[in-house]
Amino acid sequence: MIHTRGLTRTFTLKKKQTVEAVRGIDLDVEAGQLVAFLGPNGAGKSTTLRMLTTLLPPTSGTATVAGRDVTRDPDGVRARIGYVGQKNSAGETFRVGDELVTQGRCYGLTTAEARRRAGEMLELLDLTPLAARKPGTLSGGQRRRLDIALGLIHRPGLLFLDEPSTGLDPKSRADIWTHILRLRETHGTTLFLTTHYLEEADSMAERVIIIDDGRIIADGTAEQLKNDLAGDRILLTAHTAQDAGRAAALLGGDADGLTVRLRAASAATALPEHLRTLEAAGVKIAAAETIRPTLDDVFLTLTGRSLSDDDVPA
Ligand SMILES: Nc1ncnc2c1ncn2[C@@H]1O[C@H](COP(=O)(O)OP(=O)(O)OP(=O)(O)O)[C@@H](O)[C@H]1O
């Protein structure tokens, strides 16, 4: 569905200064995948998305999206993809149902087809009771569902979503995800989305791609990335600071007050072993905890920085 080779975008600023926003990305996304594209502010996510959706020409490299080349056949790409940007796509003039029909007409559907398709989309996104309302009267979550319906009106096989759940309350975020997952189950739509919510990417996406400074630095399932790049952590609480220091020395960890921090490929297997070692050495431990890594730990391991340090846009 998406194939890029050496995809690059450089911006030229005043005085011939340049910004290398995307530095030679090779990407292959097969049909039906749900891909979360993550990275800190300024990493190159939007620039990549804009090139893949033909909104921005690449400086060099190639990209084939939904079977069409983004440079040679941008119209072909646009006819086959949907794009839900960060801003609301509906105007304020028409009612929700009419917005969808108008969008369908823009994609070349006949009025009858556009009406039929609008009805299907209202149903799919649970918007049927709101069809006669103006977009301005909808809640944030309802508007987001309308944006997705508008992006799907021409039955694209591939949908790009830029921060689909940002700015929504937790209930609306969960609701948007229900609809995104339903879309995939019922229509097999390929989904490529950016998000700042790492826990959403972790639990919902089957593939996570991390971009930093214009380069892809990790690509795999969330589980693979966490196992391969971060590993588990073990947190021990010792009886005394002296016990903590001895435990850290024996097991190769860091002590801080009563707390001892350790890393392990599998904490569940390593912990009993560690406790036996400490008991044999007469080191007293009051509590033990195992911690699975997060995607943020993966990013921290790769870059030494936390993705959560970024401000999530409101
Ligand atoms: N039109 C432009 N002119 C000059 N520089 C730009 C332009 N658009 C983006 N950039 C720069 O390219 C780099 C990548 O920006 P991009 O918007 O792709 O990042 P991002 O990962 O989407 O960030 P965010 O999470 O903040 O949206 C940044 O350094 C940005 O300042």
TrEMBL record:
Keywords, comma-separated and alphabetical: Antibiotic resistance, ATP-binding, Nucleotide-binding, Transport
Xref: InterPro entries: AAA+_ATPase, ABC_transporter-like_ATP-bd, ABC_transporter-like_CS, ABC_transporter_ATP-binding, P-loop_NTPase
Subcellular location: Cell membrane
Main location: membrane
Database matches in Gene3D superfamilies: P-loop containing nucleotide triphosphate hydrolases (3.40.50.300)
Membrane-topology descriptor: Peripheral membrane protein
Tree of life domain: Bacteria
Annotated ranges, domain ABC transporter: 2-238
Annotated protein name in UniProt: ATP-binding cassette domain-containing protein
Protein's organism: Nonomuraea corallina
Lineage: Bacteria, Bacillati, Actinomycetota, Actinomycetes, Streptosporangiales
